[in-house]
Amino acid sequence: MAEQAPSGDLGPGGLAEVHLALGRFADRRYRELVKYMCSAEFETKRSLLSQAKHKVHLHKEHRVNPSRYTMRLQKESELDEKEVTRLEEGRAEALSQAVVGYLSSLRAGTPHDAPVFRLASLWLDNATDPEITAKVQEGLLNVPSHRLIPLIYQLAARMGSSENTCNMFHDALKKVILRTTLQHPHHCLLVVLALVNANKDECLLKSTRGKQSSRSVPRDAVTEERMKEAKEVLDMVRVQHPVLVWEAEGLCDAYISLANYDARKMREIRSGAFDPDNLGCSSGVKELCPWEHTWLKAQRMPTHDTAHLTGLTRSAVKP
């Protein structure tokens, strides 16, 4: 029902509202079913069903003549199992309709931001479902990429996580992040670089302060895999935006170096005598050039349907 576009002269705005209403209706049904299936009542029903099936199996295994109690127990367990199956199928159907409804509303140009956040939540909560992943991956290709910019932090955080995901989830996730980053690098590139540079602080501290004073932060397999996947995305972005990636890497390295600068000597400097030009650190901030593609990240960059941005302060830092 939600996959068919409503007919009539609704216009783009009206069509988007119809799809959004359908998506919200299905989503409401989905949440009701999930809430019930997570309740103590449903868990008790499942436990009793499992016990009943086990008793029936034992009677059949030991070839005990079926009594009236056994026959009734088997019939009731079959009915309960059908009800559980019906609820699970209803939950899956409501989830699919909600995803399709939200995707259709975004494709039709809804001005609301709630659908894209709820869509991401449904997708990430059901990352083990290959059908939902396939629907989201295909549907997002027809959604303007600038609508996904607010999700970049949430999506990037799931990179490298192999638990509770299907096989195609990470490939689809990487494609979504790559498409958004390619078309809006000024908004998304630093998020990818943050994952790539996850171990930069530790390496920098070891090289500048020695192994004794630096704390070794253990990284788990998920962090390592996340860094690897982020590096793959960065390399693909580098093919289309080589200068931008080079400048952004330099800016991030300078920020990281400055953040880890040993400021213990500055405690001895009297108030009013501090001169930032005499830091004497190898932070790299003072070595930044007037770049043409990278902006200082102290401003709020507006979101547009194109990546063309004007009126922002570039990274022009003179020593």
Automatic annotation (TrEMBL):
Limits of the FAT domain: 1-198
Entry-linked PROSITE patterns: FAT
Example of a GO biological process term: DNA damage response
InterPro entries recorded: ATM_plant, PIK_FAT
Gene Ontology molecular function, alphabetical: protein serine/threonine kinase activity
PANTHER family: SERINE/THREONINE-PROTEIN KINASE ATM, SERINE_THREONINE-PROTEIN KINASE ATM
Name assigned to this protein: FAT domain-containing protein
Organism annotation: Eptatretus burgeri (Inshore hagfish)
